User: What shape does this take?
Amino acid sequence: MKRIGVLTSGGDAPGMNAAIRAIVRTGIYHQLEVYGIYQGYAGLIEGKIKPLDVGSVGDIIHRGGTILYTSRSEEFKTEAGRKKAIEQLKKHGIEALVVIGGDGSFRGALKLTEAGFPTIGIPGTIDNDIPGTDFTIGFDTALNTVIHAIDQIRDTATSHDRTFIIEVMGRDAGDIALWAGMAGGAESILIPESPTDVDKVIERIQQGHARGKRHSIIIVAEGVCSANDVAKQLKEKAGIDPRVTVLGHIQRGGSPTASDRVLASRLGAKAVELLLNGEAGKMVGIRQNQIIACDIEQILTGHHHIDPTLIQIASQLSI
Ligand code: F6P
Assistant: This one.
């Protein structure tokens, strides 16, 4: 194998640049040429492909977003689109590909492997919703962004004796909400993995208030409902007048944390090693701090589970 490609796909995540850097430099270390494919699968179909040298990935390890840009491509979901993509790869002499993204991106990666084009996936999404890996690239950074926001909101909540409802991302997963809620000392955390009980939320606010607590922070995962819906219910049921903050895409940007940079570097290096060993159709991940590889097919049929002990601890501590 002489030449490999790398692309980022789906929602961007802090740490994707560190993964690109690791792929390029591990490739060069093993005498490979590495090509960057710009704008994900859409760019691949259009042939937006350029060589990446050692210097082209310098000064990016600390930068959020992705220097390769990203997209969600409808055309790549069709056989005709994938045919064009493989023609582009062959035209550029690329023999194998690394795809950094979430489960939608892995569906594409598996299709490429099935069509005879070796592809390896790296989990990059703030949602931490990929089965088979304990963490995805970007989750830790997003989490720290949310915690920073909670700390700031807490200051003003305490000053005004107020309840705040903070809505966080995560798509259908509650990881960002649960971890941020625990680290930020939230009174209630609403996640899709547990039934929502607004009466319990109200009870906690009232109990806290009764013992002199001057603020209440409620974290809502976007996969449950909107923070405004919760606010409406608190007002209607208990006359509470909360303030709402929807953090939105702030959670997707920013300089990656050390933990995300290291994870991205380890996963990027492993992805190239797998390709050199002739492997394909695999996702690299981290389990119990060990870098592992598993079949993408298994990932796509599996389910991401949130650790139930974390839910239990968060509930115990927020009395
Ligand atoms: O998957 C990452 C994510 O930020 C989710 O948390 C969120 O639901 C979604 O992407 C938002 O997508 P978009 O950037 O297309 O609005």
